[in-house]
């Protein structure tokens, strides 16, 4: 029994390292692409392949601006049971640097998964246009560098999509259960229970390999079914708690003066 939590924590640790490593490599590739676009924008800005490169650069900026590292810092402690699950469901505070930061980490993780699924098509179209240049022996050095760069970006995007989908499903399954949080104030300890919403429906993501890429599918399921059944059982007639009804005491008896001893 003790080997299962260790195996689960090891798998989560490997997934965290893989995601962080892919994010660092993607930042490096985005820097290389930014440099190539800046260097050749005057000569190639009217070409079709360069327009697709601009779309790839735009998607990379959106992905890196989504704050995936911050989301990972908030999600993995929850999966490791070091923080309560409700911390990733609360919207982040708005600041001057982040005026539109009003989404929870759970919603931001869903947005990252959707963005990763949409980034594959511009990368493939840009690679197709670059192969046309190689077939005509135009700009061989530039075409080879850009094609290898797009290949690395595509691999990183697809791997990150699979890992983010797996991470999102784990978080969704965890937040669908009731949680107990230990609160300590002034030496007094108390436990507070958090229950998932009774009416909200949660999304379950799935990656399906279609032709040459992973396609994201979203499925909606009713939330809190297990919690509702458990609450009904605890409050049902089969509960072990027994109640006793006290007889009513008349007001005349309460106001009757007692004799002095």
Automatic annotation (TrEMBL):
<protein>
    <recommendedName>
        <fullName>Nucleolus and neural progenitor protein-like N-terminal domain-containing protein</fullName>
    </recommendedName>
</protein>
<dbReference type="Pfam" id="PF14780">
    <property type="entry name" value="NEPRO_N"/>
</dbReference>
<feature type="domain" description="Nucleolus and neural progenitor protein-like N-terminal">
    <location>
        <begin position="18"/>
        <end position="171"/>
    </location>
</feature>
<dbReference type="InterPro" id="IPR027951">
    <property type="entry name" value="Nepro_N"/>
</dbReference>
